[in-house]
# Entry
Amino acid sequence: MIDADVMKISETLDVPANKLYMLSNNYTARKKRRGSKYENYHTVIIHHGRGHKNRKLSVPNAFLKMVQRGILEQYLYQLEISEYSTAYCKGKSLLDNASPHVGKECVLKLDISHFFDSIDDDAVYLVMKRLGLSIPATTLLTHLCIYKARLPQGAPTSSYIANLVMMQFDERLGSWCSERNITYTRYCDDMTFSGNKADIRSANVVGKVRRMLYRMGLTLNDKKTVFISSSQQQRVTGVVVNEKPTLSRSQKRSLRQEVYYCQKYGAAKSINRRGLDISPDKYLHSLLGRIAFALQIEPENAEIKEYFETVKNLINT
# Structure
């Protein structure tokens, strides 16, 4: 007999229970053709520019992705995350992560190594347990959101689950920082601290964070530890915060050049010039997205508004 809470999940997601169990076990179905088989996930490599490491994503198939989105909307959004967490939250953006650090004497940036890969099935189970469902239902939801006993970077549920896993960490660290007149925010695996140089140095923030992460099975990426004084350009998740939230000169220059080349020579030639392997349509939509982000940071910038209209017209022609 199927558990009552499992049946409720099945009804809520409008997916038969047996299919949910099939997905949760990464069930291998019939062979579609010789040498191939059904899989719930496939691997996508995101290529970055020179000097940046490529990202490996485990992306669920369309059916599992639909189920995971249902879990996110119907269940996970019921659970609150910390106010210090600013990524993947409705109504929050990169600007919300950067704004608290505006005008500070110094900014300290720390990074968590292999963030998603380091969150295991036990941590995800503890998150699902907060929903107050039966053990079979909690286990089912857990298995629907993990891959190879880890949180897959590429699933729609993973980012919000990661925030829920980090909630107690964020609250404790945020409170500890407030007592020392230090501002703290976290955007996914990027942690930012700001305040007076003396306060941050004397508090030994790096040591405190390292110990707290260690207790969770997480580690710091020491190569990405950055300490920036107010005499330098202070950037937090791509936003300059020295005096007010703004884009850097290099970001504005890059947008100006890209829009100019697209307008004068066309998207195809602009892509060839930049050595990109992408279709003109995707490139223009990507450029429009970056311009939209720029407008979030500087909504009154007339030049950026003009870029937006120019690229939008290029897409529609």
Notes: The longest strand covers residues 41-46.
